[in-house]
Amino acid sequence: MPKETLRYSKEEITVVWKPKVCIHSKLCWNGLREVFDPLKRPWVNMDGAPLPDIIEQVSKCPSGALSIEKNGESIDNEPNGEKLKIQVTGGGPLIIKESCTIVHEDGREEVRSGTTALCRCGFSGNKPFCDGSHSKEGSK
Predict the structure, then answer these.
(1) Residue 137's closest CA among 118, 123, 119?
(2) CA 86 to CA 92: how far, in whole Å?
Protein backbone atom coordinates (compact mmCIF):
# COMPACT_ATOMS: atom_id res chain seq x y z
CA MET A 1 0.00 0.00 0.00
CA PRO A 2 1.44 3.43 -0.96
CA LYS A 3 2.43 5.92 1.70
CA GLU A 4 0.15 8.85 2.47
CA THR A 5 2.55 11.54 1.22
CA LEU A 6 6.02 11.56 -0.34
CA ARG A 7 8.25 14.63 -0.57
CA TYR A 8 11.08 15.44 -2.98
CA SER A 9 13.10 18.57 -2.18
CA LYS A 10 15.66 20.85 -3.79
CA GLU A 11 16.67 24.18 -2.32
CA GLU A 12 13.51 25.89 -1.00
CA ILE A 13 11.11 23.87 -3.19
CA THR A 14 9.48 20.54 -2.33
CA VAL A 15 7.33 18.49 -4.69
CA VAL A 16 4.65 16.75 -2.62
CA TRP A 17 3.07 13.59 -4.04
CA LYS A 18 -0.06 11.98 -2.57
CA PRO A 19 -0.24 8.53 -4.24
CA LYS A 20 -3.78 7.82 -3.01
CA VAL A 21 -5.07 10.93 -4.82
CA CYS A 22 -3.23 10.28 -8.11
CA ILE A 23 -5.45 9.43 -11.10
CA HIS A 24 -2.43 8.50 -13.26
CA SER A 25 -3.23 10.96 -16.05
CA LYS A 26 0.46 10.77 -17.06
CA LEU A 27 0.60 14.55 -17.58
CA CYS A 28 3.56 14.83 -15.23
CA TRP A 29 5.83 12.36 -16.98
CA ASN A 30 4.59 13.11 -20.50
CA GLY A 31 5.29 16.80 -19.88
CA LEU A 32 8.62 16.61 -18.02
CA ARG A 33 10.09 13.11 -18.21
CA GLU A 34 13.49 14.37 -17.00
CA VAL A 35 11.88 14.95 -13.59
CA PHE A 36 8.94 12.52 -13.45
CA ASP A 37 9.87 9.00 -14.53
CA PRO A 38 7.69 6.17 -13.21
CA LEU A 39 10.29 3.60 -14.27
CA LYS A 40 12.93 5.01 -11.90
CA ARG A 41 13.24 5.04 -8.12
CA PRO A 42 12.80 7.56 -6.76
CA TRP A 43 10.42 8.49 -9.55
CA VAL A 44 10.89 12.26 -8.99
CA ASN A 45 14.32 13.67 -9.91
CA MET A 46 14.50 17.25 -8.65
CA ASP A 47 17.80 17.74 -10.54
CA GLY A 48 16.17 16.89 -13.90
CA ALA A 49 14.99 20.41 -14.78
CA PRO A 50 15.09 23.99 -13.51
CA LEU A 51 12.79 24.65 -10.54
CA PRO A 52 10.44 27.00 -12.48
CA ASP A 53 9.84 24.20 -15.02
CA ILE A 54 9.08 21.73 -12.24
CA ILE A 55 6.67 24.16 -10.57
CA GLU A 56 4.90 24.80 -13.88
CA GLN A 57 4.52 21.07 -14.61
CA VAL A 58 3.23 20.31 -11.11
CA SER A 59 0.58 23.03 -11.55
CA LYS A 60 -0.87 20.97 -14.44
CA CYS A 61 -1.67 17.97 -12.21
CA PRO A 62 -5.42 17.42 -12.67
CA SER A 63 -6.02 15.55 -9.41
CA GLY A 64 -3.95 17.59 -6.99
CA ALA A 65 -1.81 14.55 -6.22
CA LEU A 66 1.24 16.69 -7.00
CA SER A 67 1.70 20.03 -5.28
CA ILE A 68 4.49 22.43 -4.35
CA GLU A 69 5.71 23.61 -0.98
CA LYS A 70 8.08 26.54 -0.73
CA ASN A 71 10.07 26.82 2.49
CA GLY A 72 7.75 24.23 4.05
CA GLU A 73 4.49 26.04 3.19
CA SER A 74 2.02 25.07 0.47
CA ILE A 75 1.82 27.36 -2.52
CA ASP A 76 -1.85 28.26 -2.87
CA ASN A 77 -3.05 27.87 -6.46
CA GLU A 78 -6.29 29.78 -5.86
CA PRO A 79 -5.78 33.46 -6.69
CA ASN A 80 -8.22 34.69 -4.05
CA GLY A 81 -7.28 32.09 -1.44
CA GLU A 82 -10.85 30.74 -1.21
CA LYS A 83 -11.67 27.07 -1.52
CA LEU A 84 -14.39 25.96 -3.91
CA LYS A 85 -17.11 23.84 -2.29
CA ILE A 86 -18.54 20.89 -4.21
CA GLN A 87 -21.58 19.01 -2.90
CA VAL A 88 -21.78 15.28 -3.60
CA THR A 89 -25.38 14.12 -4.04
CA GLY A 90 -26.50 10.53 -3.54
CA GLY A 91 -26.74 8.95 -6.98
CA GLY A 92 -26.78 12.32 -8.71
CA PRO A 93 -24.50 15.08 -9.90
CA LEU A 94 -21.70 16.99 -8.23
CA ILE A 95 -23.13 20.41 -7.31
CA ILE A 96 -21.11 23.63 -7.33
CA LYS A 97 -23.00 26.52 -5.72
CA GLU A 98 -20.44 29.20 -6.48
CA SER A 99 -19.09 30.89 -9.56
CA CYS A 100 -16.56 28.74 -11.38
CA THR A 101 -14.78 28.39 -14.69
CA ILE A 102 -15.17 25.14 -16.62
CA VAL A 103 -12.22 24.42 -18.91
CA HIS A 104 -13.38 22.10 -21.68
CA GLU A 105 -11.19 19.49 -23.39
CA ASP A 106 -10.68 21.79 -26.38
CA GLY A 107 -9.36 24.54 -24.07
CA ARG A 108 -12.51 26.65 -24.29
CA GLU A 109 -13.38 28.29 -20.96
CA GLU A 110 -16.94 28.74 -19.76
CA VAL A 111 -17.70 30.93 -16.75
CA ARG A 112 -20.66 29.67 -14.72
CA SER A 113 -22.43 31.49 -11.91
CA GLY A 114 -25.06 30.29 -9.49
CA THR A 115 -25.47 26.53 -9.30
CA THR A 116 -23.67 24.15 -11.68
CA ALA A 117 -24.41 20.42 -11.74
CA LEU A 118 -21.60 18.25 -13.08
CA CYS A 119 -22.19 14.70 -14.32
CA ARG A 120 -20.53 11.98 -12.30
CA CYS A 121 -22.27 8.93 -13.77
CA GLY A 122 -20.94 9.24 -17.32
CA PHE A 123 -24.37 8.94 -18.99
CA SER A 124 -25.06 12.65 -19.61
CA GLY A 125 -25.59 13.74 -23.19
CA ASN A 126 -24.36 17.21 -22.20
CA LYS A 127 -21.03 16.43 -20.49
CA PRO A 128 -19.54 17.72 -18.32
CA PHE A 129 -22.94 18.88 -17.11
CA CYS A 130 -25.64 16.66 -15.62
CA ASP A 131 -28.77 16.23 -17.72
CA GLY A 132 -30.57 13.81 -15.39
CA SER A 133 -29.55 10.68 -17.32
CA HIS A 134 -28.45 9.02 -14.08
CA SER A 135 -32.10 8.55 -13.10
CA LYS A 136 -32.85 6.71 -16.38
CA GLU A 137 -29.74 4.54 -16.14
CA GLY A 138 -30.19 3.64 -12.47
CA SER A 139 -26.88 5.17 -11.38
CA LYS A 140 -26.11 5.09 -7.69
Answers:
(1) 123
(2) 13
